[in-house]
Amino acid sequence: MAKDPVRVLVTGAAGQIGYALVPMIARGVMLGADQPVILHMLDIPPAAEALNGVKMELVDAAFPLLKGVVATTDAVEACTGVNVAVMVGGFPRKEGMERKDVMSKNVSIYKSQASALEKHAAPNCKVLVVANPANTNALILKEFAPSIPEKNITCLTRLDHNRALGQISERLSVQVSDVKNVIIWGNHSSSQYPDVNHATVTTPAGEKPVRELVADDTWLNGEFISTVQQRGAAIIKARKLSSALSAASSACDHIRDWVLGTPEGTFVSMGVYSDGSYNVPAGLIYSFPVTCKNGEWSIVQGLPIDEFSRKKLDLTAEELSEEKALAYSCLT
Known about the structure:
Organism: Solanum tuberosum (Potato)
Protein name: Malate dehydrogenase
Shape: globular
Domain Lactate/malate dehydrogenase C-terminal: 157-325
Number of helices: 11
Family: Belongs to the LDH/MDH superfamily. MDH type 2 family.
InterPro entries: L-lactate/malate_DH (IPR001557), Lactate/malate_DH_C (IPR022383), Lactate/malate_DH_N (IPR001236), Lactate_DH/Glyco_Ohase_4_C (IPR015955), Malate_DH_AS (IPR001252), Malate_DH_NAD-dep_euk (IPR011274), Malate_DH_type2 (IPR010945), NAD(P)-bd_dom_sf (IPR036291)
Distance between the termini: 51 Å
Helix content: 40-55%
């Protein structure tokens, strides 16, 4: 029996990340090689022509799984009936802009998109926020889409998670697929904490802790953390453009694991609504280690947290609390 198509919304679809992301979705990278999709692409009116060009290319690529394309600048049309929403569109920080300026622009964007999703998306729509500040944009979206369950609103820290896996695999000269269970705690910003204390590598002699194999705590507690934290800036410096391919790929990873489940014994990082686990203030969207099953994520419980990690977890929570306060001040 052929499956019914899933409707996937991508906002900011004519932008860099959108352009990298839509073919991945159409090829089955996000939802599986047997899952037909209908793509809903939204962008702002000045990008309408470019968006239409992306639609033409999707048609030209003749993706067997792609059962339809909606390309529009109308949020209601874009959100109608969608099962998965990937929120890539946002207002980027420009030179000379204060954080508050960026925040107020994004608050108004996410407020209006939240109400369109609230009224028109499919009942159990899963939402992934990619646009920065991702955690706080997700929080605003949650605020203005009260009928979408809070567990269905997440933000992307899988990019940072994948970056951490990549750094360990390069350092140890092992396949990245043999490294697992790194954790990104907190904010998708330079205050995030990439944690390898629970990470392992599959070796011919069985699974070994990353700390033991790297055998260099100075690197793991210093340069490794700052490399992952600053990776986005390093890519902008090299490409003169922000990460697009890696962001699109990790958005697919995030949704795929959420919908289809994480492998046994493996956890991944997702920005989710805090319930107070690990003494993180409830009511923040914060990145935790999670496992996924039957379309639901659960925070991995009971991991020991050392003193070094505790400080890092608290620091990024503090930044998120400040961002939350700033966002709410933009609402009034």
